[in-house]
Design goal:
globular; 31% helix; alpha/beta; four-stranded antiparallel beta sheet; 20% strand
Length: 327
Amino acid sequence: MHTGLGDDRYGYPGKFSLFRCSFCGLIETYPKLLTSQLGAIYSSYYPRGDLDVECLPAQATNLRSVQGKLKAWLTGTDNQGQYTARRGMRVLDYGCGAGVALMELEKIGAEAYGIEVDENSRRVASRYGLRIHTGSLEDNPFPGVTFDLICLNQVIEHIPDPADLLSKLESRLASRGVLALSFPNTDSIYRRMCGRRWINWHVPYHLHHFSLRSFTRFCDQHGWHVVQHRTITPTVWTILQLRTAFTPETASTDDSIWQSSSSSATSTSDFTHWPGARQALRLLKRGAMLVAMAGLTLVNRVVDAVGMGDSLLVVIRPNEPRQASAK
């Protein structure tokens, strides 16, 4: 499908190819990362080593407030499993990253647990008293605890053997428990428009690339069924996609557009020395950004409504209901 792709974000070495299954439409990355490699790779290449732990609470949306929900809908950040949680639920966020979703779950009154392979999560757990197990499901974290909801937010595409993971997670579900998964949608309009420059190929970290059709077939094959689904496109994804589309293709490089950077003055025009001119320029830029953001929001919500958004949020349940488990 595509060959010669490389890590254009964080500089992992090597070239990778994408191959599509002619039967189910699933697209896979080759060669694949091995499970034994994941901890070291994510700790070394993903930019969590410079994580500003003190800023994390400000990133957590209050899911109980109308304002918080509206903001999440407008920005497309409600493409995550914790948005399906309710007060009183016991929730596991598998691959919880920096723990922001756990903070959001606690805000709505859910009992939140997390699993994260990245060693940087230890700092977050220690600072905020979050229940985060740093390691894998193989360690049997939180023994005896079952969950009403297990979230995998942009995780399943990173897993070398997703069927095996779902089987193991099923054993941790309470009676009538469900999994909520979000992952990039290969049927999205942005993937169709951008081809090999689609940001959500994200090789080599994304190993499996699903559409709703291929994921539904995957569930059918492995004893799950889809309860509900929708597409949601985060505005920031679209901004990054536009920036990527207009920059030269690179591979195995650390690209600055994926990192935060300090701003600097770039204009040397004499106009900026006029009284009030700098402020006027700032206002114009801010106004232009607001108009552009409003336009992107409108486009993305329409795209999502027709099922061609960049991210899928899918809720699944095992075909055979589990026996009730004591909590």
